[in-house]
From TrEMBL:
UniProt protein name: Thiol:disulfide interchange protein DsbD
One GO CC term on file: membrane
Domain of life: Bacteria
Organism of origin: Roseimaritima multifibrata
Signal peptide annotation: none
Alphabetical GO biological process terms: cell redox homeostasis; cytochrome complex assembly
Gene: dsbD_2
Protein's UniProt keywords contain Hydrolase: no
InterPro entries for this protein: Cyt_c_assmbl_TM_dom (IPR003834), Thioredoxin-like_sf (IPR036249)
Length: 822
């Protein structure tokens, strides 16, 4: 199941490509500014003249095979380009979706509503400090319920009030308020499930449950929160204080419930490292928090909400610290139930989580926060300001020797060789400007760390930044190899020319310092993680001082040469050999590109690779017209080169990037297909593979589309995806059965004639797919047409023919019906 990128996201991806290509090829350019709205999105309220509702809600419920509990479903279907916000939407932003039991309902909620998929999370200019959680196309929310005493589930009346906000992407918003009555849908066998959460591609997955979901006054329940780090990663022991290098817990909403201490399922381990003892949790760890219900607790719903600040580390390096919010509900009643309640998770800003931890007492008793013993507390060390500055200096100096920094040392080497023939004053000026460039980056990072909790290297978590920097470095490597030439101001004699050269020298040295430091930020030396950890929660003055020490440490070799220029005398004089060195440095830069390439997710690597080929082609076009040609010819070559690179990059992300799953696919399974056909279900199977370009085109343009999804839902068709990316004997047998040995192939089994599948081969368009689905007809049941009725449909085939569907009884008794052959 792969996410689909919407047009707005395409623009976010290809615009950085265009901007950076222009920057890399044309030098300093004016920055384009985006036009933003001036506040909140416009609101439009539905009325009688509105063109239909943009959200459709349907409620249904099921009863468990045993006991008086069940589950309530709310299904939402949205119009194209509209979205609705989650039930866990953080406060301070758009209205969350809310469902409550209405008067007259013969059931009560036992748990909060949980969605069947993760919401799309983003930031919006209207709410800059809030994470937006939204759903598009369709979503199902489910909550556990308990039926009223004496009520039979199949006769229960369940009424729900729903309210929330729907918004159009880049457009207006419509609040909604609806009264729903749930329809009974039979029974189910309860299974214990846990909600899972992962913050993007971070190396820790969280699960949680409240056990049991219902209890009586005087009982105790257990809140279980489990951290499962990826292989080679670990998290730190639990704490209820705002401590660095700990998994910090806080309960911000618990009402009258009395919490016990977070108890880990496994004791932490302590190991000796070069920088001291390190205590951490090894592997998967579950913290259990006992919640005691007072004897005088009022029956009803008791929300439980809290936050966790955590960090994933390996033996030699750490990822950025993270924060999350969790919430669930406990039902206090006359009887306790054995079923657990799900725990919902959402991302949260770590700085805010640490503030909550510092300001919120774990228990009502003042001494409770100081009472618990926290593993690893005895190993916590404090350092003087002088020691922290020295550690920052050492961390910056060591940063020059880190593996991901070594590739860019070639740029420094070229700067040093350039200085070999310069006078003392020029060497001093150049190195001071270079060091100022290094320090500038560290000062920016210090400001972000002080006021926005922006961590070291965090800019590399944004694909736009990674893509822009990768394109820039690749374009520079191509210039070093002679594919194209970076424009250089003329070297004519005269005072103005000399002043320009001096100005360019200062700008060039400063730019090299900036560029080298920015590239270095993905890495961290042995001291860097410790220093950054010690700075968490410190004053802005100390943070700026330590970051300045880091910058001085990283630029120290250049500072020494600037102060004592005779140290440069050991370098060879400039000559023809420098051209060979420049070409060698191109391969060093290409190595840096390879390092950055590995930072992209697997889904992003192919479009990034194609985008780099586009940059290569654009640079080649520019290089075909030398700098001594006329201005009009050079402008034409630059325009063509930049446009070509941007277009190729845009198309790469438009068609090679996997997209959101619009159609609710099920994996292909022959046994499941046989069962569905026996039940009279219409089934659509898309035979595809990652190596099939035509399959991808069909999928994005005609199959996995809103129009197809709408018709599938209307006809109650079950979509199945047969992924043949790796060899699969079952799929091969099915293809042979369908008289095909190649893909793409779309097979649709009609519900009223399951032995006569309709086949679409090779390239198809939207009309082909919709026509074939209409020809197949609905699943047999409520929506099915009478078997003897004639269905008259016009199908526009890939070859341009129009076909009128025959009566169901006139279809041949066996074998597939191929539309491409009609």
């Amino acid at each position: 199941m792969i996410p689909r990128i919407r047009p707005m996201q395409f623009r976010r991806l290809w615009q950085p490509i265009l901007a950076v290509v222009v920057l890399a090829l044309a030098g300093p350019l004016s920055n384009a500014s985006a036009q933003l709205g001036n506040g909140f999105p416009s609101l439009s309220f539905p009325n009688e003249d509105a063109n239909g509702d943009v959200i459709e809600l349907q409620a249904s419920f099921e009863a468990a095979d045993e006991g008086a509990v069940g589950r309530l479903h709310i299904d939402a279907k949205l119009s194209p380009a509209w979205h609705v916000y989650s039930t866990t939407q953080p406060p301070g932003g758009p209205l969350p979706t809310k469902f409550t039991m209405a008067d007259g309902s013969q059931a009560k909620l036992l748990s909060p509503f949980v969605s069947d998929k993760d919401p799309k999370r983003s930031q919006a200019p209207e709410w800059p400090d809030v994470t937006i959680e939204e759903f598009e196309t369709a979503v199902r929310w489910t909550a556990e319920i308990e039926f009223a005493a004496g009520v039979q589930p199949d006769a229960a009346v369940i009424k729900i009030k729903a309210n929330g906000l729907t918004c159009q992407t880049g457009g207006s918003c419509r609040p909604f308020e609806m009264d729903l009555t749930a329809a009974y849908k039979g029974t189910y066998q309860p299974v214990t499930t846990e909600a899972t959460f992962r913050d993007g591609d971070y190396a820790v997955e969280w699960t949680g449950e409240l056990l049991p979901a219902t209890a009586k006054p005087g009982d105790a329940v257990e809140l279980k929160l489990t951290a499962n780090p990826d292989a080679s990663f670990h998290v730190y022991p639990g704490s209820i204080k705002d401590e660095n290098f700990a998994t910090n817990f806080v309960l911000t909403k618990r009402g009258v419930l009395q919490p016990g201490m977070p108890t880990p399922s496994e004791d932490p381990v302590t190991l000796d490292t070069p920088i001291g003892e390190a205590t951490y949790q090894k592997g998967k760890t579950t913290w259990t928090i006992e919640l005691k219900i007072p004897e005088d607790a009022v029956p009803g719903t008791h929300p439980v909400e809290g936050y966790i600040a955590y960090q994933a580390c390996q033996d030699t390096s750490c990822l950025l610290p993270k924060g999350l919010r969790f919430q669930t509900e406990l039902q206090v009643g006359e009887n306790g139930k054995g079923a657990p309640a799900a725990v919902q998770f959402a991302s949260a800003k770590r700085a805010e989580v640490m503030d909550f931890i510092a300001e919120t007492k774990w228990d009502n008793a003042p001494e409770a926060a100081a009472a618990p013993t926290v593993y690893g507390q005895e190993t916590k060390k404090s350092y003087s300001v002088v020691m922290m500055l020295l550690m920052g200096l050492g961390a910056g100096l060591i940063l020059n020797l880190m593996p991901c920094v070594l590739p860019v040392l070639g740029l420094k080497l070229m700067s040093l060789t350039d200085q070999a023939g310069q006078d003392r004053k020029a060497i001093f000026s150049s190195n001071m400007w270079y060091s100022l460039g290094v320090l500038s980056v560290f000062w920016v990072l210090a400001g972000l760390a002080s006021f926005f909790s922006f961590g070291w290297g965090e800019q590399f978590t944004h694909i736009e930044f990674k893509l822009a920097l990768t394109v820039l470095i690749f374009a520079m490597a191509l210039s070093f190899l002679g594919v194209w030439e970076i424009p250089v101001p003329g070297f004519a004699s005269g005072k103005f020319s000399q002043e320009m050269q001096h100005h360019e020298g200062a700008v060039g040295a400063y730019s090299k310092g900036l560029f080298t430091t920015v590239i270095a930020t993905p890495c961290g030396g042995p001291l860097l993680g410790l220093v950054l950890g010690l700075l968490l929660g410190q004053s802005p003055l100390l943070i700026f001082a330590v970051f300045t020490a880091m910058g001085i440490g990283m630029s120290l070799p250049f500072l020494l040469i600037g102060v004592s220029p005779r140290l440069v005398s050991w370098l060879p004089k400039p000559g023809a050999w420098m051209e060979t060195l420049k070409q060698l440095m191109a391969f060093v830069l290409l190595g840096t590109v390879a390092f950055f390439f590995n930072m992209f997710s697997d889904d992003q690597k192919l479009p990034v690779f194609v985008a780099l080929i586009g940059v290569w082609f654009g640079c080649w076009m520019i290089g075909k017209v030398p700098n001594w040609e006329t201005l009009s010819k050079r402008l034409a070559s630059w325009g063509a080169g930049v446009a070509s690179a941007a277009l190729i990059g845009f198309l790469a992300f438009r068609f090679l990037m996997p997209g959101d799953v619009i159609v609710p696919w099920q994996p292909y399974d022959e046994a499941k297909l046989t069962q569905l056909r026996s039940e009279g279900k219409t089934v659509m199977i898309d035979f595809t593979a990652s190596w099939c370009a035509t399959c991808k085109w069909n999928y994005h343009s005609a199959i996995n589309t809103d129009s197809t999804a709408d018709l599938l839902a209307e006809l109650d068709v079950v979509p199945m995806l047969a992924d043949w990316s790796d060899y699969n004997e079952e799929i091969k047998k099915k293809l042979i059965e369908l008289e095909s040995q190649s893909i793409p192939l779309l097979a649709i089994y009609p519900g009223n004639s399951p032995d006569q599948p309709i086949i679409l081969r090779d390239l198809v368009n939207q009309a082909d797919v919709l026509g074939a689905l209409q020809l197949a007809g609905p699943s047999q049941g409520e929506a099915a047409a009478a078997s003897g009725d004639e269905i008259s449909v016009e199908v526009q085939s890939g070859g341009g023919k129009q076909v009128q569907a025959p009566k169901a009884g006139n279809i041949p008794a066996a074998g597939p019906v191929s539309l491409s052959a009609l």
